[in-house]
Amino acid sequence: MSLPIEYTRLNLLALATTKRQRQYKAQWLIIRQGELNIRLGKTLVTLNQTQSIWLPHDCLYAIESITASQIDILAFSARVTASLPTTLCQCTTPLLLPVLIDELMTIDKTTTSAQHILQVCLDQVHKLTEHH
């Protein structure tokens, strides 16, 4: 079974800004390198490479890089039947998450092992719910 979870890596130059965008998928942004701001309306959240942020479904945001940055993004479709956090959540990145993402980059995403890794990523999201 294919989980409705997608992975992407975003590389931004210093002082780059993305357009405000409404993402209809819930997203977990993991800062791998650099420092950046996430603009949510009039609120500005600053993150560095030890941090991550959960953005719930239907969230409007823009990313402003302070330094050259690399961001890993896990996007969770509304089809994910597991309960996902419904509010914004800033946290320290779990140590396991970057390792899982690095492994995802090396394998075919349609394989059973990739689906298992995505399931573990989903389990990490549930830990967010437990702590907040």
Q: Mean pLDDT, nearest integer?
A: 88
Shape: globular
Instruction: Return the string of H and E elements.
Output: EEEEEEEEEHH
How many helices does DSSP assign?
2
Helix content: 10-25%
Quote the beta fraction.
35-45%
- Major sheet description: 5 strands, antiparallel
Label the structural class. alpha+beta
Record field, number of beta strands: 9
Distance between the termini: 30 Å
Poorly predicted sequence stretches spanning 5 or more consecutive residues: none
Q: Give the strand order, joined by hyphens, for the main sheet.
A: 1-8-3-6-9
Please tell me how large the radius of gyration is: 14 Å
Detailed description of the structure:
By secondary structure, this protein is of the alpha+beta class. The strands form two sheets. The chain has a five-stranded antiparallel β-sheet, covered by helices on one side. α1 runs antiparallel to α2. It contains two helices and nine strands. The chain has helices at 96-106, 112-131; strands at residues 5-12, 21-23, 26-33, 35-40, 43-48, 51-55, 59-65, 69-76, 89-92. The chain is globular, with a radius of gyration of 14 Å. The longest helix is centred in the C-terminal third of the chain and has 20 residues, at 112-131.
